[in-house]
Amino acid sequence: MRISDFQELITGEKLPQEILKLTLKHLLLALDFLHSECDIAHTDIQAKNILMRIEDETVLSEFEEAEIQDPSPRKIDGKRTIYTSRQLRIRGSVGRPVLCDFGEARVGDKKFTEDIQPFLYRAPEVLLRKPWGKKVDIWNLGVLGKLLFDGRDINDETTNEVHFAEMIALLGSPPQGVLDGSPIIREFFDNNGNWIDETKVPSKSLEEMEENLTGRDQVAFLEFMRKMLRWVPEDRMSAFDLLDDPWLNS
């Protein structure tokens, strides 16, 4: 089951804190292996690309029996048969999250320049069309964590302008070094790094947007997010170091 499907079974589609921690911890383990051992950037970490393992395998036999007794509707389209999806019944605890779909992955310890990532997940360097590397995955994971906690739909429509404005609201204005060298910089910023686009920068900060937690839990969670959501790629913590985060292990 995809974690996006699992969300649909939860009120408000918001992952509980403990399941979110479990998910992020296993994704960090996967990214540490990909980045450190394989020189691979995944570049497409989103809810539909994370599978939850099935702990109780009787779910599968029940699924098979249900299909035999009441086959799913289908139609033939040319040379292929299209089946209506059948929902798995999940009982008990969910299994270990697994990162999948490496169709957009990039191999090699070098910089790339092509567009990657769905809009809501795009790192600043990707939006600015600057060279990027494996640290785009760390930004990507930070955004995913917030979206899973908030229940926000990844299909929310957005644009470069809206995405940039949200980044500024959450992180403040970008350092000049982040803007330097971008071929599209003058579409959004003046020579002094000030925002000039007509899109309004939201008034809510990251702290004001976090409504799932309060007190120390909220502070610890936001500190974890800020280790990943940074303008400068080199300032983002590695997957290995993030595994020691206090909130993640609390």
Describe this structure in words.
Helices cover 38% and strands 7% of the residues. With 250 residues, it is mainly α. The protein has one domain (3-55, 93-244): Transferase(Phosphotransferase), domain 1, CATH 1.10.510.10. Strand 3 and strand 4 form a beta hairpin. Helix 2 packs antiparallel against helix 5. The chain is globular and about 70 Å long.
How do the strands and helices of this protein lay out in sequence?
Layout lengths: L2 H6 L8 H21 L2 E2 L8 E3 L5 H12 L4 E4 L2 E4 L13 E3 L6 E2 L16 H4 L7 H16 L9 H12 L4 H4 L26 H4 L5 H12 L12 H4 L8
Helix pairs in contact: 2-5
Strand order of the largest sheet: 1-6
What's the number of domains? 1
Beta-strand percent range: 5-15%
Helical region count?
A: 10
Look at the helices and sheets and give the structural class: mainly alpha
**CATH hierarchy, class:** Mainly Alpha
In CATH terms, the superfamily is Transferase(Phosphotransferase) domain 1
Order of helices and strands: HHEEHEEEEHHHHHHH
Please outline the major beta sheet: 2 strands, antiparallel
GO molecular function: ATP binding; protein serine/threonine kinase activity
InterPro entries: Kinase-like_dom_sf (IPR011009), Prot_kinase_dom (IPR000719), SRPK (IPR051334)
GO biological process, one term: regulation of mRNA processing
Protein name: non-specific serine/threonine protein kinase
